[in-house]
């Protein structure tokens, strides 16, 4: 695999650490800025707002530039945001800094996925995306625990400063290793034209509904493990670390299966997820079984991630594809909000902590139905000759050959 993928993965690691590490150092930030923990918790929401705003906006602005130029610029925004976070003299400044940092998130993954798949032959496109995205899952296993430890033992300001350094390393790697021919400048009109294709919306729907199953459960995993499984609170962090390892393995495995089976791999992932969640709900009070099923569920769920990312770019049938790729990152965030909201609704109704698990199983089944339709739509489109698609395929093949050299 090209070294440029390493630069993309390092960037994904830095972004993942920046996004999630705040959850582990809320008390330290609250003490340092003399505000309440609940106020600091709003930094998580501020980051989400930045992702939602930045993904389409910065991607649309970046279509006039090559993917390499856009990725370097996005990492520069990421570095500036983290430096401001590290130096923030007040809570308000930190909120602004977090939003600035988040602006690069969705667009980096969207544009990065387009660049990653063009670094390799077409039959390895999903593997390339999975290697990039693996940086995000590794962040939950290494970056977030390490950042939390540094915040507890030294200063929370060192954490965003360290993330800024990771951003600079990413920029250096992109400049040194990313070929200029990983894409060309396009125009906004052609990028928007991709949204006319029904298959794009089908894949986005699979992402929103299918991954909502994951977040319906993961959002409440701590009380599920402690209240239902009877695990001590001290065990939750190690279990989540193992969960993170499972998601990393699943992400990499999904890259291989996705290149071979395409959307059928996503279909299998959703069906198995529904079965695992049903078993999880029935055995949640048995600690060993609960942990094993949770880890397996994480691995199977994340295996679908690089597949849908690659498939939405393919479905766009345009030379760029960055905008639909970024839209899929927005779909992941919608899935996060939808899953968490539905889980909260059943908990508020007094259904108990098994209820979010059953909600997750139902969402996985709903995603299965959507994926079945998407598979059929893809087959129908494949039988329809399209000169635009033939031109895009020829161009991508030539790009991959030049890049490989």
TrEMBL record:
Residues 4-379 form the Major facilitator superfamily (MFS) profile domain. The chain crosses the membrane at residues 42-63, 70-89, 95-116, 128-152, 158-179, 200-222, 234-254, 261-282, 288-309, 330-349, 355-375. One of its GO terms (cellular component) is plasma membrane. The keyword NADP does not apply. Its main location: membrane. It is found in: Cell membrane. InterPro entries: MFS, MFS_dom, MFS_Efflux_Transporters, MFS_trans_sf. The keyword Cell membrane applies. Keywords: Cell membrane, Membrane, Transmembrane, Transmembrane helix. It is a multi-pass membrane protein. This is MFS transporter, DHA1 family, arabinose polymer transporter. One of its GO terms (molecular function) is transmembrane transporter activity. It comes from the Bacteria.
């Amino acid at each position: 695999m090209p070294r440029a993928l390493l630069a993309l993965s390092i960037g994904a690691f830095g972004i993942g650490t920046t996004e999630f590490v705040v959850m582990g150092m809320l008390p330290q930030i609250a003490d340092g800025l003399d505000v309440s923990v609940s106020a600091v918790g709003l930094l998580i929401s501020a980051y989400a707002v930045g992702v939602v705003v930045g993904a389409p906006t910065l991607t649309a602005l970046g279509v006039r530039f090559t993917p390499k130029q856009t990725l370097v610029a996005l990492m520069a925004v990421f570095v500036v945001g983290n430096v401001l976070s590290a130096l923030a003299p007040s809570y308000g400044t930190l909120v602004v800094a977090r939003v600035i940092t988040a602006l690069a998130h969705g667009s980096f993954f969207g544009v990065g996925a387009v660049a990653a798949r063009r670094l390799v032959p077409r039959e390895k496109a999903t593997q390339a995306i999975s290697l990039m995205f693996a940086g995000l899952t590794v962040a939950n296993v290494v970056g977030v625990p390490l950042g939390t430890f540094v915040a507890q033992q030294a200063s929370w300001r060192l954490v965003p400063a360290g993330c800024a350094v990771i951003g600079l390393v990413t920029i250096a790697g992109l400049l040194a290793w990313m070929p200029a021919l990983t894409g060309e400048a396009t125009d906004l009109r052609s990028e928007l034209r991709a949204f006319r294709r029904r298959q794009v919306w089908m894949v986005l729907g699979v992402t929103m509904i299918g991954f909502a199953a994951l977040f319906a459960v993961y959002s409440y995993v701590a009380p599920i493990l402690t209240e239902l499984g009877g695990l001590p609170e001290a065990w939750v962090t190690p279990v989540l670390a193992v969960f993170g390892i499972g998601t990393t393995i699943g992400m990499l495995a999904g890259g291989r299966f996705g290149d071979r089976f395409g959307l059928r791999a996503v279909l299998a992932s959703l069906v198995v997820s529904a079965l695992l969640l049903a078993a999880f709900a029935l055995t949640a009070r048995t600690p060993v079984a609960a942990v094993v099923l949770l880890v397996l569920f994480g691995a199977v769920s994340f295996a679908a991630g690089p597949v849908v990312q690659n498939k939405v770019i393919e479905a766009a049938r345009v030379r760029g594809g960055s905008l639909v790729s970024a839209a899929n990152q927005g779909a992941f965030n919608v899935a996060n909000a939808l899953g968490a909201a539905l889980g909260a609704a059943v908990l508020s109704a007094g259904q108990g902590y098994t209820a979010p698990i059953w909600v997750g199983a139902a969402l996985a089944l709903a995603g299965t139905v959507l994926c079945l339709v998407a598979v059929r739509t893809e087959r129908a489109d494949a039988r329809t000759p399209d000169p635009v698609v033939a031109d895009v395929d020829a161009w991508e093949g030539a790009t991959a050959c030049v890049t490989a050299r």
